[in-house]
């Protein structure tokens, strides 16, 4: 087991979790670009098909991923949690989460994993804000606003609280209690870093913005939903 | 003018609610008792909207004759917000249970798939 006060050199298995909803047109390409091995560790891709109406699951299977399927659409948070639990079932030493719409570069999984192991850290967050080239101004502004809301709710400030590109050690993951269904999962993870006093690092990653990822990514209304969801959580705690 | 708009609005809302309830009754999604409850409730709401004097009459004929109309509607508002809160909490619980069930199902299905067939 790696992570808090544990030797990290014994890590053997990396599981990459990709929550997916109607991503048939891009998921094959994303899966093909995930390296099969990193630093002598095996890499397994786990796709959570969140009730897609297209053949996302089939294409993911054809590209060598283990597929877990939600019978109906629950949201990216619920799909991520299913993926993280699946990774625990698979005895993963390092768990990486990333978007399946091609926004994250699979080549950067290696940097995240290396940073986690060499740190050693419990969680490494791929931060788009630290490398904002090509990132639309509206996205940067929205992310900074959501960082502020995350700080108000969870008392932890990080450079990119909404990043879906993260690496976790097994022990860090086992200490996290997650239950958000929607996009507020990212902020909830930041809250768990604070609650469990986990060691983390924000690592610059580049975000690939294509017409497709623009259309599939977080819209203005999603941002409003995240803020409302986080405020509801804050009120429940009061 | 505003009073007429308010009356038309309440009749419209009542018509939508009752027709939706009737459709659910026909589809056997809703019970007859529930349908009768909604028809009765919305009829009362429409009656109060059409003849607001009913509320004055009820207040005057009760032990609390001195109570103002504002107090009665204020209490009504508080009651409605309480119902909204209860519905929100229940909905949240049901949603969480549904999410957990679907997640368990996804993990279980995958385990069954991985198990070698004998």
Please explain how this structure is put together:
The complex is a heterodimer of chains A (238) and B (118). Chain A is of the alpha/beta class and 238 residues long. Chain A has a single domain (13-237), classed as Spore Coat Polysaccharide Biosynthesis Protein SpsA, Chain A, CATH 3.90.550. Chain A is 40% helix and 18% strand. Chain A is built from nine helices and eight strands. Chain A has helices at residues 27-32, 56-62, 76-89, 109-118, 137-154, 170-175, 185-195, 211-216, 220-237, and strands at residues 13-20, 37-38, 41-50, 66-70, 94-97, 123-127, 166-169, 200-204. In chain A, strands 1, 2, 3, 4, 5, 6, 7 and 8 form an eight-stranded mixed β-sheet that branches. The longest helix of chain A is centred in the middle third of the chain and has 18 residues, at 137-154. Chain A is globular, with a radius of gyration of 16 Å. The model of chain A is unreliable at 1-5 (pLDDT under 50). With 118 residues, chain B is mainly α. Chain B has two domains: 1-51; 70-118. Chain B contains four helices and no strands. In chain B, helix 1 packs antiparallel against helix 2 (32-50). Chain B is elongated, with a radius of gyration of 23 Å. Classes of the chains: A alpha/beta (238), B mainly alpha (118). Chains A and B meet through strand 4 and helix 3 of A and helix 4 of B.
């Amino acid at each position: 087991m790696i992570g808090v006060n544990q030797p990290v050199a014994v890590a053997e298995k990396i599981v990459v979790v990709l929550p997916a909803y109607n991503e048939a047109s891009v998921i094959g390409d994303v899966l093909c670009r995930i390296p099969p091995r990193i630093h002598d560790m095996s890499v397994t891709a786990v796709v959570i098909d969140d009730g897609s109406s297209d053949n996302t699951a089939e294409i993911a299977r054809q590209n060598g991923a283990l597929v877990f399927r939600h019978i109906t659409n629950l949201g990216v948070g619920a799909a991520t949690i299913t993926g993280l639990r699946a990774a625990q079932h698979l005895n993963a030493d390092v768990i990486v989460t990333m978007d399946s719409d091609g926004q994250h570069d699979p080549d950067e999984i290696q940097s995240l994993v290396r940073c986690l192991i060499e740190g050693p850290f419990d969680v490494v967050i791929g931060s788009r804000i630290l490398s904002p080239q090509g990132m639309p101004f509206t996205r940067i502004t929205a992310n900074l606003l959501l960082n502020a809301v995350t700080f108000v709710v969870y008392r932890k400030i990080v450079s990119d609280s909404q990043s879906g590109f993260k690496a976790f050690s097994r022990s860090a993951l086992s200490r996290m209690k997650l239950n958000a269904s929607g996009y507020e999962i990212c902020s909830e993870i930041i809250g768990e870093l604070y609650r469990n006093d986990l060691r983390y690092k924000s690592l610059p990653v580049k975000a690939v913005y294509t017409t497709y990822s623009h259309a599939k990514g977080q819209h203005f209304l999603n941002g409003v939903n995240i803020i409302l969801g986080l405020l509801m959580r804050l009120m429940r705690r009061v | 003018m505003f009073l007429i708009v308010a009356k038309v609005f309440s009749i419209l809302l009542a018509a939508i609610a009752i027709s939706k309830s009737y459709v659910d009754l026909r589809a056997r999604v809703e019970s007859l008792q529930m349908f009768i409850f909604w028809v009765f409730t919305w009829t009362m709401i429409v009656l109060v909207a059409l003849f607001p004097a009913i509320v004055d009459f009820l207040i005057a004929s009760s032990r609390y004759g001195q109570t103002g109309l504002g107090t009665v509607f204020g209490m009504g508002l508080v009651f409605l917000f309480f119902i909204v809160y209860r519905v929100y909490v229940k909905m949240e619980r049901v949603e969480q249970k549904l999410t957990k069930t679907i997640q368990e199902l996804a993990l279980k299905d995958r385990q069954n798939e991985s198990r070698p067939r004998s």
